[in-house]
Amino acid sequence: MEYIDLRSDTVTKPTPEMREAMAEAEVGDDVYMDDPTVNKLQEQAATMLGKEDSLFVPSGTMGNLLALLVHCQRGDEVIVGDKSHIYMNEAGGMSALGGIHPHPIKNQADGTLALDDILASIQTEDVHHTITRLICLENTQNVCGGVPLSVEYTQQVGKIVRENNLLFHIDGARIFNAAAALNVSVKELVQPADSVMFCLSKGLGAPVGSMLLGTHKFINRARHLRKMLGGGMRQAGVLAAAGLISLEKMSTRLGQDHDRAKKLFDGLKQVQGLHLDATEGSSTNMVYFNLKDDVKLSVDEIISEMKKRGVLVDWAGPRRFRLVTHYWVDDAGVEKTVKAFGEVLS
Ligand SMILES: *Cc1c(COP(=O)(O)O)cnc(C)c1O
């Protein structure tokens, strides 16, 4: 069966154009920095995001870890959202591998960290305290509904960073979704940050890979650490070729995914048994919702019933779902999903 797969935008398979580009990619040994396709991808990403340099990495998790390892010494402290991917979903890499101390503060419903909370969490100079080194934001903020953080908010955080001699990393796994939703350039959105990571392998549709961006000095150090972690790849141009299409073509079509997420949200709002909070109406590619208390079926039972109807969905909590639209979900897929939920919950 051809499934409509809404579990994540990570399930996106390469487009036919990507497969063709991959087959024809000019390659070399990227550890020698000899792969022309990787070099082109890195140059293009740096230009698009307005940073000096960039590095192709196997995953977003490795990109974030490299940023943390370059910016921080052992024992340094990092301010992160308590619902951030770096804090919740990267296997504690910063502590395990970097000896870095996370200082989680509350993610507000709109995905931001309150500026007062950030200010209050910066450590004062005291023999008892760690040294606050870095602030991380996540844009879009996944767990808060895939919400985009604005240019203005990011600049406000940037101001705090500069006034307190800190560093600033953006986990921009879905920064292109944020830029599309806000109708601004990615460049503007990441301008105040010292480093940024974004994923090619999510809504941008590439099979593998993420980009890390920053100054030449930062990227040279990150390249060294990437090798240390076993992430030095050889003829990686085969992958970078798909990444170039992500940047050139896929980055301009994300609005379609956002429109379909909105349609999905509006459709599911009509389904009995589902509670869709208006404040959670996604402006990007994610739709989160809860089961009403009177629904007897469990989330797992619903997932299995949906699968029988050709739709794959994933849970986001004991009574909660997250659905994600992407390149391979068309209007018919959205209608099929709403219809299937209607059947399962009737
Ligand atoms: C997916 C994701 C990552 C990590 O990317 P992987 O390629 O899965 O390692 C980091 N941050 C956020 C917000 C993500 O959604």
Considering the chains and any ligands shown, give keywords for the structure:
2 domains; Aspartate Aminotransferase, domain 1; alpha/beta; single chain; Aspartate Aminotransferase, domain 2; 346 residues; binds pyridoxal-5'-phosphate; 13 strands
Summarize the structure in words.
With 346 residues, the chain is of the alpha/beta class. It has two domains: 15-251, Type I PLP-dependent aspartate aminotransferase-like (Major domain) (Aspartate Aminotransferase, domain 2, 3-Layer(aba) Sandwich); 253-345, Alpha-Beta Complex (Aspartate Aminotransferase, domain 1), CATH 3.90.1150.10. Helix content is 42%, strand content 17%. It contains 14 helices and 13 strands. A seven-stranded mixed beta sheet has the order 2-8-7-6-5-3-4, with helices on both faces. Strands 9-10-13-12 form a four-stranded antiparallel beta sheet. A hairpin with a 2-residue loop joins strand 12 and strand 13 (320-324). Helix 1 (16-24) crosses helix 11 (237-248), helix 3 (60-71) crosses helix 10 (216-228) and helix 12 packs parallel to helix 14. The longest helix has 16 residues, at 254-269. It is globular. The relative contact order is 0.17. The model has no long low-confidence stretch (mean pLDDT 97). Bound molecules: pyridoxal-5'-phosphate. Pyridoxal-5'-phosphate (PLP) binds at residues 59-61, 64, 85, 138, 142, 171, 173, 199, 201, 210.
